[in-house]
Amino acid sequence: MSSSPLTTSEESLEARLCALLTAAVQKISSPPTLPPVLERPRQSTHGDFASPVALQLAKGLRQPPREVAAQLIAALPSSSLIDRVELAGPGFINIFLTAQARQEVVHEILRHGPLFGSSQKGSGRRVQVEFVSSNPTGPLHVGHGRGAAYGASVANLLCKAGYQVHREYYVNDAGRQMDILTVSTWLRALQQSGKLKSLPFPNNGYQGDYVETMARETAQRFSGLVVS
After folding, report:
1. Is 82 in the same domain as 93?
2. With 90 as the cut, is the pLDDT of residue 79 above it?
3. Which end of the chain has fewer CB within 10 Å, C or N?
4. What residues are paired with 95 via a beta bridge?
């Protein structure tokens, strides 16, 4: 690698790496091509970033992609961001960051505080996020708690991106399904009373054990009113 000064710390890490790759591309390819693409590998063994730029250049240079990748690696300017670079597969360039590069984000977080990660990408746009809305016709479960945390997080992220967010939660305690739940509970209470054991239960009624429990509690609370 040849020597080259670092760009300013205000630029994103990805942009700075792209600038280094672009410098390497310009050394082996003329005229300059499109900016190199950087990707985040799925496996950490493939580096922190990977670029298929050699595969993109190979046809125009009339050289095998792996040879192009080797030339790019040799022409890549030295940088305190990069620990090592590896040639992989048909011609991918895998970039491994230094500890210093990974730790830069910590300094950014401390410098910007609560504003870290904020943007105005959604400025002037309104978004409605509906979440949780646990169905009162069935028992609560851990999924409802997960939905609350997930929905709140999505809304917070959108706010961070500058969107005007309206959080919506539907109580959902009215309508046909609530009528069916009411009738189901009442019919189970009648069956439990012992006076109407043969009372048929509709197929579209709520069949869960929780309905039996609600019916029992209802009968105890309103003793004498369920069956006169």
Report:
1. yes
2. yes
3. C
4. 49, 85
Are 211 and 189 spatial neighbours (Cβ–Cβ below 8 Å)? no
Segment 36-61 mean pLDDT: 91
Q: What interhelical angle do 65-75 and 53-61 show, nearest 10?
A: 110
CA 46 to chain centroid: 22
CA distance 57 to 66: 11
Asked if residue 141 belongs to a domain, the reply is: yes
Q: State the number of CA atoms in the 13 A half-sphere of 179 facing the CB.
A: 2
Q: Is the pLDDT of residue 88 over 60?
A: yes
Question: What is the DSSP-derived secondary structure letter of residue 39?
Answer: B
What is the SS3 assignment for 83?
strand
Name the pairing type of β-strands 92-97 and 82-88. antiparallel
How many C-beta atoms surround the C-beta of residue 37 within 10 A? 13
Do residues 155 and 129 touch, judged by C-beta distance below 8 A? yes
**Structural element, H or E, at residue 92:** strand 92-97
Q: pLDDT, tens digit, for every residue of 102-135? A: 888 888 889 888 888 888 889 999 999 998 877 7
- With 0.85 as the threshold, say if the pTM is over it: no
Residue 113 included in any domain: no
User: Are 91 and 144 within one domain?
Assistant: no
Q: If you compute the radius of gyration of the chain from its CA atoms, what whole number of angstroms results?
A: 31
Please tell me whether residues 160 and 210 are part of one structural domain.
Answer: no
Q: Are 141 and 208 within 8 A, CB to CB? A: no
Work out whether strand 164-168 and strand 126-130 pair parallel, antiparallel, or are unpaired.
parallel
Does 89 lie in the same domain as 65? yes
Q: In the chain, what percentage of residues exceed pLDDT 90? A: 41
